[in-house]
Structures are given as structure tokens and as C-alpha cells.
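Per reviewer request, we include the raw input and output of the structure prediction for the construct analysed in the revised manuscript.
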Amino acid sequence: MQASKFQILGLTFAIALSAAALVFGGPSHSQSRDSGSELERAVQAFNHQAADNEIGKDQPPLTSEAVVAAIRWNLSPSSSLVIADGTREALKNVVDQGLWPQDFELESLTGYEPDDRTVFTVWSVRLRVPGGPHNNGTTCIRIREDMLSSRIMGPAEMELVQEFQRRMQAGKVGSFERQQFLQERQQAMEKDRAR
């Protein structure tokens, strides 16, 4: 039986796809990863916490594929990630087997204040792992970094923040004072908006 031109073309296409899959690593490990893996459970727990976060509740859920992609990026030879060999192996095990070490943590940040004037609202999702330049330190692998908004502080808020920073440097700020500061800051922001 002689194959038609379309059958040969289809077979050639299928072989080319298979060859490309072999060359480029085939399907991702996450496709064969058990949906009940430790990685999946860590991502689900993070998403559960994010759903209760004022900023996180409006953001797309984190996926295990995004975590794996961020790890692979940071394991590449061009990465400047400073980690011990044991942490590097643990990261490979997350990618290959979905294993999740107890000392790994998915965390989020919702704001940055890089100077005394500007406030950024962000959704920053990071994987905190042992490492960095200090003994017993940690370092982070960025998974997602979304700038959502920014604003310049008004005079009432700026004055309050500067006073709080002076008190912190003098060692006069405890945990209760931090809570009070956050409430006062909200009031100062409202006062600035009313101007």
C-alpha cells in the first residue's frame, strides 16, 4: 500500500515534533509531576493565604509551573544566585520530583518604599531559600514582580514616617508602636488626601 502525500507530510510533522521535544527537553517535568506533590501543596497553601491578602486577592493564582520556571532560570549558568550545593540539589528536586524542603518558603511583598517620598504597591512573589553571603542566611528567587501603582507621600504622612524612623533608630519602637504607627499613617494619608 502506498502512502499519500498528506500521510507522509503528517508523519514527517510528527517526527519533527518528537525530535524537537527531545532537543528542547521534552515535556516539562511539571506535566508528569503528581498533582498531590509537596510543591503543589506549597503552592496551594500560598494561594490560600494570598486570597486573604488585600493585594493578593486580586492577583492571578501562583502556579507550580511558575515556581519551576523561576527555579530553572536561577539554576542556569548565567545566574548570580549564591547558594550552597545542598540548596542547589534541593532546588533540582523541586523541579524534577516536586519535593518541597521544610526550609523553603513562598512569600509575598505588597509594597516598597525605596526613599522617603515614594510608595509603590506591588505583588511580589518570591521563594525564600537558604543561602546568600551570610552564614545561616537566606536569599530569594523572584517568581513574580508586578508593579501595581505608586504615589508620592503627602506632608502629614511624610512627617509621621520621618518621626517613626528617628524613633526606630533610637531603639524606641516596639511591636505595639508599629501597630499604632500603621493606624496613624492611615489617618495621615487621609488628612493629605483631604487637602
